[in-house]
Amino acid sequence: MKKGEQKVIRLTVTPAAEPIPAFRHRLVARDIDLQPGNAAPFYYRALLEIPPLVKRMRDADDPDRASKGCMHRWRQLHEIPLETVRKAGFRLDWLIDQQLNTATSRRQCDWQFGIEDLQGFKVYNFVLPEIQQMRELCGLVALHTRLAIADGRLDDALDAIRMNYRIAGDAATTRFLVCCLVGTAVARIVNETLIELIAARGSPNLYWALTELPNPLIDLGPAFRFESEIRARVFPFIQESETTQRSYEEWNRLFRMSWREIYKGMLEGRCRKVTPLQTELTALATALAGYPHAKRQLVAEGMDAGRVDEMPVGQVLAAYSERNCERLRDEWKKLFYMPFWEYQAREPVTGRELNEAADPFSRHAQREVLPMASALLFGFAQYRVPQVRLQREIAALRLIEALRMYAAEHGGRLPTSLDEVTRVPLPMNPATGQPFDYTLEDGVAVLEMPRLDRHESERERFEIVIAQ
What we know:
This protein is an alpha/beta fold. The chain has 19 helices and six strands. 56% of the residues lie in helices and 7% in strands.
């Protein structure tokens, strides 16, 4: 889809009454069905099955592809024809029955990466291939779901969707925001199969099943709190710098070491080699340029001028940097805990302030001497939008199920306005805190979902009609 285009999801659905009991169908496992133990070892075993299983599907789809010496015509799992999935079905069934059923029935998922032991820029260079591969596991379960829907095995499809939501949550248990981003992407793949299930003739009403899902489904909170306090791991130089006693030489050594970490992290990320001489010269230039400003600001903020004069240069720079990191971090934390519509209004101002502070040549009073806050905080803005997009999607599906419930009670007719739907509470749009934009014209119900922010590439809307 091209940037700026609208994604239209057209659904022809059958009326579906509220189930009795209300939670007859579930998208989360019952607590009584969960078993003690760690899911991660079973996921690792499942990940080993992905390459041979995908190869089997490619061979089943095109037995002669190896002799052709060209790339296969499908590259993504969702492009695999269902007949190909059916041919390789027994191995896919084995993967799900023997590994994923066990993994998703465990109470916890601890990947045991040892992230608490990481120091310096190793925190940011830590790779997570297992978490990235969880997308592929989700894709395989999504294929299993699609096949079950096509064959009319709706209960099996519901079981697979419940499993896949659990996979999404387990992908996000590590306290890195990127893991939450993967979990969010996995959950959106699951939503696509849930939409197919809702559109299947005779599918049960899942309003209460969707309502039971955690909200938010992927909680950014633990990862956000971990990463917002990560400065002490990456830059121990600035931890409690105003009260820690060190020699003049030790403070300056720690300053140079911290600058070396920053400088290498910035330049090596751009594939540029860093020499020791370059590092030492830039550290010296940074100290000479930043020390007078840091000293003035500490005094302006209330620190005793005589105490500041007695502090080693490295300690002055550390104390100033620590205060800056805390102040800028807290501005982002305030945004994180705001409703999304408040976040939207304030994020450009906070982002602009961070940009100004990161510029060593700006006139900003709290401009950074060492670009620590900018190194730690610049990525935070990208995580809130995917989370709210996922929340909005699930809320929209709840609303569609409420519409199906209404149609079951009113002879297959959809409401002309959402005010007519009173049997169950209607979800608000999490992006706005207001009701969804709903219209009915010529028997087609439309849910409009505008872009969430200036960075989003697409608009979405659902078009729903009742099957005849």
